[in-house]
UniProtKB/TrEMBL annotation:
Gene3D superfamilies: Tubulin/FtsZ, C-terminal domain, Tubulin/FtsZ, GTPase domain. This is Tubulin-like protein CetZ. Involved in cell shape control. Belongs to the CetZ family. GTP binds at Q10, A11, G12, G13, K14, G110, T111, G112, E142, N169, N187. It comes from Halosimplex rubrum. InterPro entries: CetZ, CetZ_C, FtsZ/CetZ, Tubulin/FtsZ-like_C, Tubulin/FtsZ_GTPase_sf, Tubulin_CS, Tubulin_FtsZ_GTPase. It comes from the Archaea. One of its GO terms (cellular component) is cytoplasm. Keywords: Cell cycle, Cell division, Cell shape, Coiled coil, Cytoplasm, GTP-binding, Nucleotide-binding. It is found in: Cytoplasm. The keyword Amino-acid biosynthesis does not apply.
Length: 394
């Protein structure tokens, strides 16, 4: 699937930069064009792979290149005011060569949180291609203002895009890990999971051909209908034989081998095991998978470690677990040292994390209002003289 990726804000820019690195390493051809938008000049300068001409600094008249300080209402206002500058970079995208737009943003800050829904609304008004969002939720330890920002942005963003894919930092940060190191690891996880998914159907490294091709239309159909999506991923390594070929952990007895010497029954069982691990393990947004409206299974790896029977069995298992009749599946052969299952669950509803986020945000909003009121009272008490003998200047 070929995407025009737009990183909005600091987190969004870094993730799109990482996608370009992944593209370069795997030759998957996912990112047809990349743009970064920010109110902070330093964040744009820190990017490594997004072309300089595609780095758009907005809000200079109001914040002088210093960012919006986690004020997502200001971020939204600036995005509205400077949308023509963003459109100027988007005009350079060869839209006839892409399958969809993808807006990537951290939802807890100010610029991406406020600006990404504004951009989504703008793109949908102009283009016929789908507009997807990839939103990153802040960790619970990042503070009440970031939780409040994320809850408000999530509520708005999901209504403006054709589908919102979500990654929850809370589910991935390791205890005791530094914030910078944690985000670096998280960005790797984001790109690995979504890279396998969106790489399906594109020409990867090597010349292997899929048995059951997953093309961009399968992904678009799975994401159709809107709502929220999450991605599961599981992988097993592949070892080399002395002969120079590949020997997977899937290999078993000498009976039931295919033309490449693989144990087909064991391969099938291992594929279905990976599918279960991907669906029931750590999702990008933890949720109950039953009730998901649509699903897509992509198996990637060396072609002699993939078989149609295993993929079909995994697809049927997903049908049973989700209760959905819209479950698609296929393979994505690549010359790598692992076999991976990537599962897209679209239209998920049973998401405790979102309910928790909304509740914490409501409490934070009430607390912020109380703090502001108390602050005004404290200031009034400080500056007013007891006898009311001083007159203000105006």
């Amino acid at each position: 699937m070929k995407l025009a990726m737009i990183g909005f804000g600091q987190a969004g820019g870094k993730i799109v930069d990482k996608f370009l690195e992944y593209d370069e390493a795997t030759q998957s051809g996912i990112v047809r064009s990349a743009v970064a938008v920010n109110t902070a000049k330093a964040d744009l300068l820190g990017l490594e792979r997004i072309p300089e001409e595609n780095r758009v600094l907005i809000g200079q008249a109001r914040v002088k290149g210093h960012g919006v300080g986690a004020d997502n209402e200001l971020g939204a206002e600036i995005a509205e005011e400077d949308i023509d500058e963003v459109q100027g970079a988007i005009d350079n995208i060869p839209v006839h060569e892409i399958d969809a737009f993808m807006i990537v943003a951290g939802l807890g800050g100010g610029t991406g949180s406020g600006g990404s829904p504004v951009l989504a609304k703008h793109l949908k008004r102009i283009y016929t291609e789908p507009v997807y969002g990839l939103g990153v939720l802040p960790g619970g330890d990042e503070g009440g203002i970031y939780t409040l920002n994320a809850a408000r942005s999530f509520q708005t963003f999901v209504r403006e895009v054709d589908n919102l894919l979500v990654f929850d930092n809370d589910a991935w940060r390791k205890s005791g890990e530094s914030m910078e190191g944690g985000y670096e690891q998280i960005n790797d996880e984001i790109v690995r999971r979504f890279g396998v998914l969106f790489g399906a159907g594109e020409v990867g490294s090597g010349d292997e051909v899929a048995e059951s091709v997953v093309d961009s239309s399968e992904i678009i159909n799975t994401l159709s209908g809107g709502g929220v999506s999450t991605v599961g991923y599981a992988a097993e390594t592949v070892e080399e034989q002395d002969s120079g070929g590949l020997l997977s952990r899937f290999k078993g007895d000498d009976d039931g081998l295919d033309d490449s010497g693989m144990d087909t029954a064991n391969t099938t069982n291992r594929i279905t095991s990976l599918v279960r691990k991907a669906a029931l393990g750590r999702l990008t947004l933890p949720c109950e998978i039953d009730g998901a409206e649509r699903a897509l299974l992509v198996m990637s790896g060396p072609s002699n470690h993939l078989n149609r029977k295993g993929i079909e069995r995994g697809r049927k298992w997903l049908e049973e677990q989700t209760g959905s009749m819209e479950v698609r599946g296929g393979d994505y052969p690549v010359r790598e040292n692992n076999v991976a299952a990537s599962i897209l669950l679209s239209g998920v509803h049973n998401v405790p994390r979102i309910k928790e986020l909304q509740q914490v945000a409501i409490e934070a909003q009430d607390n912020i209002d109380d703090i502001r009121q108390q602050s005004e009272e404290n200031l009034e008490e400080l500056v007013e003289d007891d006898e009311d003998e001083l007159d203000p200047l105006f």
